[in-house]
Amino acid sequence: MHPFAYTRVSDTREALGAGRRGGRYIAGGTTLVDLMRETVERPETLVDISGLPLREVTATERGGLRIGALVRMAEAAAHPKVRALYPVISQALELSASAQLRNMATIGGNIMQRTRCTYFRDVTADCNKREPGSGCAALHGHNRSHAILGASDHCVATHPSDVAVAFAALEATVHLLGPDGERRVPFAGFLLRPGSTPNREQALQTGELIQAVEIPAHPRPLKSGYLKVRDRQSYEFALTSAAVALHLRGGVIREARVAAGGVGTVPWKLPAVEKHLVGERPSEALWAAAAAKAADGARPLQHNRFKVDLLSRTVERQLRIVGGTR
């Protein structure tokens, strides 16, 4: 680990000043500290923001939910409003990591976490995300766990967050605070596809701080859930996952929100699946036909072709779990 300075701030003004000067924000530290140990990350200054007042889960005036950036994963998963309104979020959080990590890691830190690509974490390997212009060893290396959607010739790493998949499905908004004031970014535009600049992963400006993630109001009743498929039952990242939220009225699907994880360079919204569902009555045939569209546009690599079929099967299974059949 390389030497670094450490400062703890007590208010957002102080935090923004330190961030503007190049400091890296840290709260739970469950990802950044690991990367520093491996010398993948080498920040000169850490700015401890764990004392900031961003720890509340509150209902919004329009019937949505706002989750503070410093709410711990375990707290968010167990919160009565989260569990009642959006079980897909609770389930995604509870399937994310060990209890110890969930007690430390924050919502803001979770969506900011960096890829688990082994080449990114191996400082001797070529990685455009870690060292722009060096190449991507995963393209022709062992790429079983890598992306089949949203990849580029510069990067094929997947985004590791589970709850980010739920946020993408629910079309959340990220509230940011920076030197130029507050702004809101749709979740779909917050996490960036790699393109030719895979080292730029979020739509953050210099010194900006995540304040909260807001889930918009959805029509009731809303049934939702999260399914994660992995190589082992616990403490493993997703090969594929599916976040599904359905609003049914009069036996007809009025609204559908579906996103996938483990297969994309960012949490992957599935609009073709959603479109196929809306206006239809639940049935085994509907789930299968909609899920068949989940891998539209997939570009599998040498070792992860199995993800194409696995993604469709995962989405179909979760549609059946959430939506049931008549």
Automatic annotation (TrEMBL):
Cited InterPro entries: CO_DH_flav_C, CO_DH_flav_C_dom_sf, Diverse_Substr_Oxidored, FAD-bd_PCMH, FAD-bd_PCMH-like_sf, FAD-bd_PCMH_sub1, FAD-bd_PCMH_sub2, Mopterin_DH_FAD-bd
Annotated GO MF terms: FAD binding; oxidoreductase activity
Residue ranges of domain FAD-binding PCMH-type in the record: 1-220
Species, as recorded: Streptomyces swartbergensis
Keyword terms, alphabetized: Oxidoreductase
The keyword Cytoplasm belongs to this UniProt entry's keyword annotation: no
Name of the featured protein: FAD-binding molybdopterin dehydrogenase
Leader sequence segment: none
